[in-house]
Amino acid sequence: MGHREIYTNPPLALTVVELRHTASPALSEADKAGLKSLLASTFPIYKPAQQVSITVTNAGASEQRVAFPRYMTRDLTESITFRDNAVVVETTRYKRRSVLRELLRQAVEARQKVSPVDGVSRLGIRYVNEIRVPDLEGPTNWERWISGSLTSIASSRAEGPAAQTWQGMVVFGTASEGVALRHGTFEGYAVEPAGDLRRPAPAPGPFYLLDLDSYWIPEGDVPRLDWDTIEERFNTVGLSAYELFQDLVTDHYRTEVLEREQ
Hints:
Blueprint: E1 12-21, H1 29-39, E2 45-46, E3 49-57, E4 60-68, E5 70-72, E6 78-83, E7 86-91, H2 97-114, E8 120-131, H3 148-151, E9 167-173, E10 177-188, E11 205-216, H4 227-248, H5 251-258
Helix pairs in contact: 1-2, 2-4
């Protein structure tokens, strides 16, 4: 697949792989025990994930909470969650694509051994990047670090108050394959350090969000959920996000932040 740069100071706060599949019955207690047994060497901690949905009607709002089995590493930086319609792998200590791919393989093989599902409906890999830079004087200075295609809005007014903050979304590609980008200027954190997944906590302050959701949605027949199909698509989806990220940051950012020795 070719050489890809591994940076000294990557900006990734969270990486999520969501493999959606055809609907399945809720996992039984025996299924959960089987999954724990298969994953225990890497994910020994059982900590259910809560999904909250709110329904609003004329009579008012009602809240429904559903718990899905989730298995975590001992340092609580990686997890695998099995929802009724998806397998989800999350990590706050991303190393490289091959390592993430191996975690997904473990999750898929465990699911298919314990309670097989029939087919794949979507594969998405989401990379949440918090771009933090030294000595940022103001919002308009992001142009030194982030591509002008994203930051040009800050200098669009010749007169009047300067832009202080902005956000946007754009989808590159087609309905079946592409990358959805959410971006903009923010304060604090995109991924809270106090969440269920632990992460290093940089000092809170201004950051530029590059949130890339690279995806593949099958067209036509529903493909079977087998690892050979997923592995091929995983590589393509991951590379699409990597290549877009490279287009969105400047050489100055690469030199002064990504490649800088600590």
